[in-house]
Amino acid sequence: MKREFLRKLLVACSLILGLGVAMHARAEDEAPDALIKRLSVEVLDSIKADKSIRAGDMNKVVALVDSRILPNLDFQRMTASSVGPAWRQATPEQQKRLQDEFKILLVRTYAGALAQVTDQTISMKPLRASPDDKEVVVRSEIKGSGDPIQLDYRLAKTPGQGAGWKIYNINVLGVWLVENYKSQFAAEINAKGIDGLITSLVERNKSNATPKKS
What we know:
Helices cover 56% and strands 16% of the residues. It has helices at residues 2-19, 32-49, 51-54, 58-69, 75-83, 86-89, 92-114, 177-207; strands at 121-124, 135-143, 149-158, 164-172, 175-176. The relative contact order is 0.18.
């Protein structure tokens, strides 16, 4: 149980540390590794400067996620990949509910992870990609007290309006977030179907709705 809880905290912390963005930034003008580094530094600084965020103020957590994280996340792709083949059989209404509940699940998990941020810094690894690549992996580490936390990001370059690099998967200590949720969701879908998974997410989110006070 403790190991699983720690893994969830690390996954959530990776999202907070790696996905933030200043509202004025133009992500499409940046290389993917430069984007990840800038976002990581900005969000680390934001968290360190706000005690209420570190304490798990849910209103501020939601505001942080909505304004800084989601614009740089291909959330539909992440949700669809986590649900797996059953996503294609889901109705538009079911897909919307899955995305909504998956978002809440991640946001609620952040509350516990934010309190873990203290003196961490970001260290980027060399980017192995060519200028023509449309999908890349950006590797980094979060360093502070204790062992470094490995964080790798899968990004895809999106065309058209809002073009730029979007994050669609994250690797924490060798565990990719989408694959981690995919195995959990598959068991729910096999047992109870799509509606069963939605119900399970709703119940999980309700149980996590009130953050613990320190």
